[in-house]
Write a structure and sequence with these properties.
Layout (H helix, E strand, L loop, with lengths): L6 H11 L2 H11 L9 H16 L3 E9 L4 E2 L2 E2 L3 E13 L3 E5 L14 E12 L17 E4 L7 H6 L4 E4 L40 E3 L2 H16 L5 E11 L1 E10 L6 E7 L7 H23 L9 E7 L3 H9 L7 E7 L13 E4 L9 H12 L3 E2 L6 E2 L4 E4 L7 H5 L7 E6 L17 H20 L2 H22 L5 H22 L8 H22 L19 E4 L7 H6 L3 H13 L7 H7 L6 H12 L4 H13 L3 E4 L1
Parallel strand pairs: 6-7, 7-8, 8-9, 12-13, 12-14, 14-19, 15-18
Antiparallel strand pairs: 1-11, 2-3, 4-5, 4-10, 6-10, 11-13, 15-19, 16-17, 20-21
Length: 653
């Protein structure tokens, strides 16, 4: 039997096996597919990566799910399958130019556009400027194309009501400071944005058609619309889309390295997005495949002991595939101990792309997943010695941030799912969701680091021994002590006491959760270590926090915030899917909420995650405040009221 290595030696073995250039070869294969969720292109890419895993000796299968527009996986309705054969848009006046062409650049046709043929008829283009509000826009669009430069999704419902034949848009948002003034930028001026119609109702199926044009052409078309309007005229265009929306299927690629128990560690990367979409997310898929192949090789060849827990890789359509997988495994999700999500991990760290980011789990997870990842990154940063032994100069940038949603990890980290998961990503990325996200943007060294990080994370979690626990306890304590010290002088004595009690509760629960992974013969040792850490925190709290009457989170302002909400659904709310089944009145209530609290939409998941059947709505808002710094009691009340009326939430007193 192979002796278990210490943490550093384990990472070194994995680092010496993972190869960034091999991952680059995987990217070259993946990028050739137009990987739209539920499409032939995606299906072929799934077969491709399954073959790559299989050829490296990894056990792999492909699971198929209905893409029928009806099947519900928790609150997520599964898209119908969409395939496009042809699509183009040509301006016929005041100049002649093809602005979109599917056969030249697939992203120039908005995904899930329905069949249209205006190839022999000039269609007027009606411009809605940036000041226009969709709700107030009342110009008939019957037989016309609507042109909105940005935020096209907010115009979809209104354009359909007004009879538009289609939408023209740029909708390539700025990412300051790396992506600004796109029409003047040599790299971005001719790019097209990755846009999609999220068709989740029968009513929409034959009514949505659209074209993503470049920022430069968007500027030119805007100027033409303004000039011709003064003359009582409009630009005109001809266009055609040949596509089929049908009941079909989508696929998840499922690979596993077996352990000795029923427990698992889950690695996830989304395989979808248009051709070529290299950093987002062929890079995550390639790094994950390289991680799995390397681990399998090391274990099969006896260079690493086989771990207790199995390691599973899912390559999926983003969100959709994960909802389907979790719904299928609903009754044994507790076997999955933790997860890691790879999403945009391979770009050169230059003026176009930022550092490697570890996105931590939310407080409600009470998890040390981010601490394991931080320990691994600390080792990876030791690439170049500087001066005496023990001092290193990093060759790449990396940081850990508190929980942020936006990718598959947020679904896993929902306490109702119970798989505390981190994300590995890069931000900013100048090419994000555009046609210039190409292989020239990718650094094989970053791919290798991402592969090592994900492989080491899964392996350490899957074996988790006493030495791993000792190191993680130290990192967890470091994190929470820093958090405590950062708030000790903020607010009144009562507020500081309340906040420090909150931190203590999360900290102690996180330490206790380490015990869940320990073999029985190690529990006593870890308990002693944890006991000492708790005693230290208690002493510090007594030293720095005055003995004031805490404004505890179980005290609330009024009766409305003393109600205890209860979730009537599992997994985060798939908002687009839920909206598609709402009445117009219900959708207007959501719009009114967003209008009243324009900066608070990101709090929705925090609210849902904190609903545990014990906390009042007032307590929930305080927990969110401690995580985000946002005072949100009124927003929480309004949100809960709306979703109570929608029967997603109940109340008890």
């Amino acid at each position: 039997m192979i002796d278990e290595m210490n943490f550093t030696a384990c990472i070194d073995v994995i680092k010496n096996t993972c190869n960034g250039h091999t991952a680059m070869d995987y990217i070259r294969k993946i990028k050739e597919f137009h990987r739209i969720q539920a499409s032939e292109g995606y299906r072929n890419s799934a077969k491709c990566v399954a073959d790559l895993l299989r050829s490296n000796g990894v056990h792999v299968s492909i699971s198929k799910y209905p893409a029928d527009g009806q099947t519900l996986c928790f609150t997520q309705k599964l898209f119908k399958e969409w395939n496009c054969q042809e699509g183009w848009l040509e301006i016929t006046a005041p100049w002649q130019q093809r602005l979109s062409d599917f056969n030249q650049e697939e992203m120039s046709i908005i995904q899930r556009s329905s069949f249209r043929d205006f190839s022999n008829k000039d269609v007027p283009i009606i411009y809605a400027d940036y000041k226009s509000n969709p709700d107030d826009f009342d110009i008939s669009l019957e037989g016309a194309l609507l042109f909105v430069e940005n935020s096209f999704e907010s115009w979809i419902e209104r354009s359909t009501e007004l009879g538009a034949a289609g939408i023209i848009t740029v909708s390539m948002p700025e990412i300051a400071p790396v992506r600004i003034n796109m029409s003047e930028d040599i790299q971005m001026s001719h790019a097209h944005a990755n846009l999609s119609f999220h068709i989740l109702s029968k009513y929409q199926e034959d009514k949505l058609c659209g074209f993503a044009i470049s920022p430069l052409n968007g500027k030119r078309l805007r100027e033409a619309c303004i000039k011709l309007k003064d003359e009582g005229k409009r630009p005109t265009a001809r266009f055609k889309v040949s596509s089929v929306l049908k009941e079909g299927a989508f696929e998840n690629v499922d690979a596993v390295i077996p352990g000795f128990t029923d427990e698992e560690i889950l690695m996830v990367a989304h395989l979808c997005h248009p051709r070529s979409s290299v950093n987002d997310n062929a890079s995550g898929v390639a790094a994950a495949v390289e991680a799995m192949c390397s681990l399998n090789n090391l274990i099969e060849n006896g260079k690493l002991p086989r771990p207790k827990r199995s390691i599973r890789l899912l390559l999926i359509p983003e969100f959709t595939g994960l909802y389907a997988y979790l719904n299928e495994r609903e009754n044994n999700l507790s076997n999955i101990v933790s997860g890691i999500n790879l999403d945009m991990v391979g770009a050169y760290q230059n003026k176009d792309a930022g550092g490697l980011i570890i996105v931590d789990t939310p407080d409600c997870a009470r998890s040390f997943s981010g601490d394991i990842a931080t320990n691994i990154v600390d080792e990876l940063l030791k690439e170049c010695k500087f001066g005496r032994n023990g001092i290193y100069a990093p060759l790449f940038l990396s940081t850990k941030v508190p929980f942020v949603g936006g990718s598959d990890h947020y679904i896993l980290s929902d306490p109702a799912i119970g798989i505390p998961s981190i994300a590995v990503t890069q931000w900013p990325d100048k090419t994000y969701h555009t046609s210039v996200d190409s292989i020239e943007h990718i650094d094989p060294n970053m791919l290798q680091r991402a592969a090592v990080l994900s492989a080491a994370y899964c392996y350490i979690y899957s074996r988790f021994n006493l030495s791993d626990a000792e190191m993680v306890v130290e990192k967890v304590s470091e994190r929470f002590l820093h958090r405590f010290m950062s708030i000790r002088q903020k607010g009144s004595d009562a507020e500081i006491k309340e906040h420090s009690n909150y931190i203590k509760g999360i900290y102690y629960s996180t330490l206790d959760n380490i015990l869940c992974l320990m073999d029985e013969d190690c529990v006593g040792d870890v308990l002693q270590i944890i006991k000492k850490e708790k005693e230290l925190f208690s002493k510090l709290q007594k030293c720095f926090v005055k003995d004031a009457e805490a404004a505890e989170i179980n005290k609330t302002k009024d009766s409305s915030s003393s109600k205890v909400p209860v979730r009537l659904f599992k997994a985060p709310i798939a908002m687009r899917s839920v909206l598609s089944d709402m009445t117009a009145k219900q959708r207007n209530e959501i719009k009114a909420l967003r209008k009243r609290f324009p900066e608070f939409g990101y709090l929705d998941d925090y609210i849902i995650f904190e609903i545990d059947g014990k906390k009042t709505s007032g307590q929930i808002s305080r927990c969110i405040y401690f995580q985000t710094g946002t005072e949100c009691e009124d927003y929480v009340e309004e949100f809960l009221k709306i979703f109570f009326n929608l029967k997603y939430i109940g109340f008890k007193f």
